């Protein structure tokens, strides 16, 4: 048992005093009665003055760990601890996280997490306490928990095919725990995977003898089955080699049939000259499902795996490169065209990119061809109703599901279309089966629907009220209605449209109206948003339930807030036709736009509050709807509403790294703003100035801010003038004109004071602290940051609080106060991460790297890489003084560990997600320990 203060172990006194501390630790934050403590320390024979002696031990512990830590409660004592201060709860949490990761199939994550959990152990539990006390049961419980964690770690090692590592650990564990059958199982599996079948079988025989001789029992059925699997060389005992990470959707149902198609697609993509393969066919044929299956098959063999890019929610071809970059988790590079940045970052990636529903953005096809031409190993698997018609494209027409060749029950049951239909029917009728009595009708249903997966999917739910014969009769009548449909449409498309018409005809009037109205949503919706936009004279809850039963709607995986719903792309296109014919389209699109305008404005207003991170996450979820609303407002000439929505979204776009897209929307809105209210134009110009400044376009930012200021002055809006002056000052600050920036911020602060606007006074004060940093005056910077911090904490504004704390940390860096700098910057970094401010997090990581450049150069280099990725992802630029710090840090690191080691660590850092970067920063050893030379 070891207790540390500032990295140094404390003297805990005699064995009985340590026993008391162990009891209090194992029951941290709970009252331990005096009687229980005495029993634990002395057992059944306590001395006469045990109470007095116990008080002496409590006094000694208070001196060692702090009087405030151990409180008297009634006739007992309680040790106050935070969870992060005690290794045991952290160990337990990590073990559970590792177990969950292993169960979810994330073996690498499980292995890393479980190793971190076991690294918290420093020898045997309670090793410095004598046996024979009431703590013996606790000691054994802790040993068991560590052993369980070790077994989980070995399972993770085996899942990763690290059998050599596992065997090294198992040899000792089996010897120490001969009655633990799970260890024998792991040892047998590891030996078999090491091509030592005979040794694996010998372990089974050894286990049989030990269990029979010592316990009088036989091996479990599971262990006996493992022996048989080893004897027959069962392929399932091997781990399939994987190298690439798969970022693919997980379909809710298994793939039926399609084995030949999957094999053909994978074989075609593995051909040397096939870099772009397009799966073509009408809507509902199953292109997307087949693409996911092929990517799942091929992706693990590629060094950089496979990723799925959903293009259905977007209509602007210009958004295709940024959508691909987002799916690949690549950083936006503000000074480069997105396709250039993509090509640069993917130049040597060995990966498969699935571009789904490309027919919606066909104008972007040349960009895909260009991207492939400028990379060497990238492959693209596209799904589209029509070919992309670019050089190098190979086409794979997706066929329908195979149909029964005859009406015999045996042939019907073998057909994939029938298997698919029957499985979907069993969702609503678990007892359904294809047999002699219905085989002919089921075969005819599949033929009439031409083996189209979506048509079968939509027809199957009606089997909860119809027999196969009755369903067939209805299908026949509905197909006749569109038998003479447009001849320029593919025949299969006519059949699908007939199926959708049939499904539509079976809906109630309310369900039909709601289906048309819901087409206005892009990327899904919640029940609340459906009621707000589509609920005019409709019972939305009841109608949505009917649409779900008819398989016209789908539930989406919950990310944040309420459960979400969406339509299949083909169903939405059908519903859009209904909406256009309803006479309600303009009204519905306006209500949709107004709903999301209100959502965005409320989120913008709440961004300064403690719940601001949740508001931003909700906007991320609704981003496709917000884009659709903006696009409609622009096309409909609703300039005022367009300006309001771009303004409301500008902060979200900035914090979440959509800066390039944001500037396009703002520019488009400003093109039509001449006849709009001056105050609204002024606010849009100011926000555009902020975003231009974020990307380092300081001259543009200053020009926009000056225009904003002029309009506010015409309006007599002093607050707006002050905000514009602040934006001007920011462009000056980032451009390195500190003197002029300081004057502008002082002017803005005086205006805010006159208006009584405490928040903006605090913001201007912290900005003046940035100026002081640029002028190499860290004492003044710290003073100003402290002044602003008091206000921001009172306001409950986490993002601004993080900014003020960052300045305090940066000032401490400049003064060489490394311990204070680390403390401030780690606090600031956690706050920035909580609110999703990637720009602020990048600034913190750069400053932390500066504090660690000499003492922890490898970690510092990783943090520099993480910071650069975050900064590029946010589309932000560093101020001049921050650039100087970064360059000085990089020079120090290169001299310290060499160019190659620096580059390797920098690239490792680039791969870190924000949360992982926060954790990596926290892993650096305390300054005091480094100075004392401790390991």
Uncertain spans: 478-495
Described by strand count, sense and barrel closure, the largest sheet is: 6 strands, parallel
Domain tally: 7
Please tell me what the overall shape is.
globular
Number-wise, the strands total 14
General description of the model:
With 935 residues, the chain is mainly alpha-helical. The protein folds into seven domains: 4-81, Orthogonal Bundle (Arc Repressor Mutant, subunit A); 246-397, P-loop containing nucleotide triphosphate hydrolases (Rossmann fold), CATH 3.40.50.300; 409-504, no CATH class; 508-538 and 549-583; 585-672; 677-756, Serine Threonine Protein Phosphatase 5, Tetratricopeptide repeat; 814-931, no CATH class. Helices cover 64% and strands 5% of the residues. It contains 44 helices and 14 strands. Strands 6-8-9-10-7-11 form a six-stranded parallel β-sheet, with helices on both faces. A three-stranded antiparallel β-sheet has the order 3-5-4. Strand 4 and strand 5 (76-79) form a beta hairpin. Helix 29 runs antiparallel to helix 30 (659-671). The longest helix has 24 residues, at 136-159. The two termini are 19 Å apart. Mean pLDDT is 84; it is low at 478-495.
Compact overview of the structure:
With 935 residues, this protein is mainly alpha-helical. About 2% of the residues have low confidence.
